[in-house]
Structures are given as structure tokens and as C-alpha cells.
Model the fold of this input.
Amino acid sequence: MPVEQTFGHTNGHTNGHTNGYTNGHTNGVSNGTNGAAKTYNISNRGHSDPDKIRVICVGAGFSGVCMAYKLQTHAVNYELVCYEKNDNVGGTWYENRYPGCACDIPAPVYSFSFEPNPSWTSYYASAPEIQKYIVNFVEKHGLSKYIQLNSRVVSAVWDEARGEYDVEVETPTGLIKDRCHVLVSASGVLNKWKWPAIPGLHDFQGPLLHSAHWDDSVDYKGKRVAVLGTGSSAIQIIPSMQPEVSHLTAFMRSPTWISPAVATDFIESGVVPTDKNTPVQTAFAKHQLTKEQIAKFEADPDEYLAIRKRIEATMNSATDVFTAGTDMNEGARKMMTEVMEKRIGDGPGHDDLKKRLIPTWPPGCRRLTPGDGYLEALVQPNVTRVFGEIVSVDAKGLTTDDGMHHDVDVIVCATGFDVAFVPPFTLKGRDDKTIQDEWEAEPVCYLGLSAPSFPNYFICLGPRGPWGNGPLLPAIETLCDYFLQAIVKIQEDQIKSLEIKLAPTVQFNDHVDEWMKTSVWKTGCRSWYKMGTVDGKAWLWPGNTLSYLKTIKQPRYEDYTIEYKNDNILGNGKTLSEITPEGRDLAPYIRNSDSPWTVY
Ligand SMILES: Cc1cc2nc3c(=O)[nH]c(=O)nc-3n(C[C@H](O)[C@H](O)[C@H](O)COP(=O)(O)OP(=O)(O)OC[C@H]3O[C@@H](n4cnc5c(N)ncnc54)[C@H](O)[C@@H]3O)c2cc1C
Ligand SMILES: NC(=O)c1ccc[n+]([C@@H]2O[C@H](COP(=O)([O-])OP(=O)(O)OC[C@H]3O[C@@H](n4cnc5c(N)ncnc54)[C@H](OP(=O)(O)O)[C@@H]3O)[C@@H](O)[C@H]2O)c1
Done:
């Protein structure tokens, strides 16, 4: 039996005003009949006095904890609960525990922009180190009071009369019911790992591993291991496992680009020399920072800031690389081809590897990965490269379309995720519409953050978000700022529902489809950006990350349909500064220069 929920954390309402009224207080126009005189009741509240609001956030990865931080830091009179299905926060970085898992963008910029970490030990921080950063962030800011672990949101249903979502959550003690005015989905896109559809896969008698569902108890050392895939996960797994296994068979049915690392100049003096006993570096060992370098970053935040800005600016100034045929993209193709050929080197079968691995489609079509040590690992004597399709798996190994059977002891599927973009819970909005039905043909999503028919519902990094366009964390932060602004507006303007209109949503998607026609993402690779297709629509942002941030920095409320609880937000003529003056400026516009001012 479902029970009423008891979770969540109420913030200390810092306004200090007497909050004894209910939202339903009468201050609107009472519509008299037959032309009778209207009554107009003035509220006893101050101007824009924020309503109490309850927010539910699904997930506690980078997005969920950022949402919690932003609300705690900038909102008042709210309740928040972040339901997280796992037994820890972290999302991607908690779940992906495969050997070599690390970020593939420079670590100095893979942290919240306002919470730098000068202590990363390597240029590509490892998953455990990133996970530690997230856990520390939660602890430092006291966010765990909002987070309910082991709790999977299974459904959310909009109640038109109340202007709330009824939310059901599976917990270890059973199904609970909760409710909220605003629902934020921070449930991740790369969060539903899936087995590849290969006949007989589960007949295999040895350990069967998936990159995003790693079993640490499996000892693969000295064993014959098959690794499936040429995506970012396989590219990190192969150089990490190859030195430790007796034989590695890499099943590579698609080519891929391996990019050089960006903006490494600042660490060159700190690169740890290659360990002579290790033939190939693991994905994150090569650019390990020295103690001296870390100490320098820790001691000099300004220098570290300058480095972070430089890396980010480098990534933000390569938009032309996303367009096929541009000088920048063709230049990248030439340079990466040369580097890949050099790194693969000469030897038996090496030319075949170059021919099969270096794509004909342009760089960037699939996610670019630096792949430290990947190409070098592929040409080691204990590695077999297999380029065909796997047609079946049996108890002892895998059979490819050339009829060859490959005996192995362990199979590692680095075969990716189910990226359908619909939320991992049933979402029912207005007029009984479910997002699962509405988005069945394709997502109908505005700026990757809201959806028509689903009022007061926000998505952190939905379809057409900047997944492949540059740095992701600034997008997550700016999205949370957007949701925060909307939440505060809902509170202060006494809004019942905020629903994105269909017209701007359609217009936005038309724009993206047109923009994508010349983009690299529409060229001939298969990618999760196109939901696993070769020629499907690309569900990415049409531009660079900076243009995404500029677009969403301020919500365009004219794109939304707004329904108010009350017509009158002016209140009793007083501002909150007058009602609760402590610590507030009652003359904010009296100043010595034309600096911004605001009335509280
Ligand atoms: C292996 C890997 C490496 C990556 N490397 C990089 C990188 O180098 N640079 C980069 O910018 N990006 C990288 N990404 C993308 C990465 O996912 C994002 O950078 C970021 O971590 C996303 O955070 P998130 O909170 O939005 O999603 P997630 O980290 O996926 O978190 C979502 C959370 O929601 C929870 N959840 C899901 N469904 C429910 C439910 N129904 N109820 C309750 N909780 C639920 C999940 O358990 C999870 O904790 C990588 C992704 C993967 C998979
Ligand atoms: N920081 C990082 O470096 C990093 C690391 C991991 C993941 N990520 C993120 O996560 C995303 C997903 O990466 P991923 O590598 O896990 O998944 P992915 O990019 O979707 O790659 C999956 C790979 O598995 C192959 N595959 C799937 N089914 C197969 C089958 N039946 N037989 C043989 N091969 C099969 C695919 O081949 P086809 O291409 O032929 O379909 C592809 O090479 C990345 O794009 C990136 O955004 C980032």
C-alpha cells in the first residue's frame, strides 16, 4: 500500500514574515453576475512575497546536486527532495567503474565553475576522483539533507486542480507517494545501460560485464578477454586491461577518431615520465600531475583560474569543427589522420588497422575521445583486432560474420546506453498525455529543458542539449540557474502553472533540423547522438556551448503559457524590505554610481 511521504527538507524561511495565510486567500476579482459591482480584495501580503513551494528532483548526479545547491543558496520558502535510485550520489561517476574510466576533457574544467578543484591528480581525472569530488561537494554544502537514496521515482502525474505533480517512489520500505509544485528531471541521459542484442549473449559461461555495470569481483588478470565496441568506454577500457590480460580480442565493427588532448601545454612540465615497466599507459595515468604542480595550483587560485579560462576558451572557440567541410574540420581530419597513423605505426596488420579504424566521416560525428594509450594498446602482441559483425555468442565465446569463433574467458560489453531521451519514469501531464506517448515518434522538447503539455516540469540536459558541443558542466549549472529563476517566479508571482508553448518548441526544433543539415553529426557515423542510427536526426544543440548558455541565461517567459493563482501580486503596498527590514536596504537606489539595484 502506498503511504504518504515524509521525506524532504524544508528550508528555514528567511523572510521572517508571518506566513499564516494560505495560497488560496481571496484577493482576485470576484466576477459578479448581471453587471453587479465587482469586489476587489487587497491581500495582506507584501509585494512578491514568495509562496511556499515544494520541488522534487529526480536524481543526484552532477545535475541533481547542483539543483540542490542552487536552491539552498538562492531560494527561500521551499521544500526540496532529490530522489536517487542508487545508494550513493554521483550518477555517471558512481555507476561507471570500468578500468580506466576517466573524464575525457581536462580535469581543471570538469568541476563546477564556482567550485574549482586544484587538487586533481591527473589531466583526465579518474572516475573515483570525480566521484570523491561530488561526495565532498555534497558534504561541504550540507546537501545530503535533501537527498533520499535508494529511492526510484516511478511515476509523476499532473493534477490540474491543485497545480501539483503526484509522484510515486519505490523505496526499500515500499512505494511512497509524494507531491510537488515543480518537478525537475536530473535523471541523466547516459544512465540506462543495455546489453547488446546478440543472439546467445547470455549463454556465455564466463563473466559477462558491461562498462556501466561493472562487477569488481571479476578477476580478469591473466585471462582471455573480449572487449566489444569502439566508443569512448571501450577506448578507455582497452589500454587499461590490455597489459593485465593474457589475450585481448577487440571487436570493432565501426571506425572512430582519436583526438589529441587539448590545451596540455600548462602541464607539460608536470607530466610524469612513462613507467618503463608498463608497456602502455592506462587512460588516465599518462598526464598525471606532479605534487609540485598540484601544490602550485592550490597556492595560486588566480593562476589556476587563468588556466581554467584558457582551456574553456579553447573549447568554446572551435564551433566550425562541428560543420562538415569547413577548413577547421578538414584541418582536424588531416591532423588526426596523421597522428593516428603515426601512433599506430608500422607492423604486421597495422595498415589494415589504419584503413579500418580511421573513419571516412568527419571528426566529431561521434564523440571525440583522446584515447590515451588506445592505439598503442591495439597493436600490442597480445591483442587481436576483429572488424566484422558478431553474429552469435555461445558458452565458450563469440562468432563473427566470417564464420570465425573466438574463444574467450570474459566478455566486456562497452556497447553503450539506451538513449531514448524519455524520462525513466511515467510522466503524465495535461489532458492525460504521457511523455512516453508524446515523444514516441521523437522528442518534442524546448531548448532541451521543457516540454509542451508538461507544466512545471524541467529537464536537466534533455534532447537537443549541448551533449557533444563542448563542456557539459557549465550547461548543467546554467540550466539549474534557469530552473531556479522559474521557481522563484512561480513563488513570487503566485503562478499555478508554467507550460512551454508548442509554437516556440516547433520553431526551435525546425531551426535545429535545418542547422544540422551541414553539421558533422549528420554525416555517416552511427551514434547515440542520433539515437543509435546512422541517418536519424541529431539530438544536439545547434552551436557551441557558449551559445547554449547565452540562450538559456534568462528564461523567455513569453514562450510559456502562464496560469496564475491570483490576479494581484502587488499585495498590501509594502515591500518585504519594509516588512522585515533586518539586513535589507530600504533605499537601494541611493548610491554613488549607476550600479545595478534591486528592491527586495
Ligand atoms: C562513462 C562516461 C564518461 C563521461 N565522461 C564525460 C566527460 O569526460 N566529460 C563530460 O562533460 N561528460 C562526460 N560524460 C557525461 C556525463 O554523464 C555528464 O558529464 C554528467 O555526469 C551528467 O550528470 P547528470 O547528473 O546529468 O546525470 P547522471 O550522472 O547520469 O545522473 C543521473 C542520476 O539520476 C538517477 N536516476 C535515474 N533515474 C532515476 C529514477 N527513476 N529515480 C531516481 N533516480 C534516478 C541515477 O541513478 C543517477 O544518479 C560521461 C558519461 C559517461 C557515461
Ligand atoms: N569521458 C569519456 O571518455 C567517456 C567515456 C565513456 C563514455 N562517455 C560518454 O558516454 C557515451 C557513450 O559511450 P560508450 O562507449 O559507453 O557507448 P557508445 O558510444 O554508444 O559506443 C558503443 C560501442 O559499442 C558498439 N556496439 C554496440 N552493439 C554492438 C554489437 N552488437 N556488436 C559489436 N559492437 C557493438 C558500438 O558499435 P557501433 O558504433 O558500430 O554501433 C560502439 O562502438 C560517449 O559518447 C560519451 O558521451 C565518455
Summary: Residues 201-287+320-413 form a domain with the FAD/NAD(P)-binding domain fold (CATH 3.50.50.60).
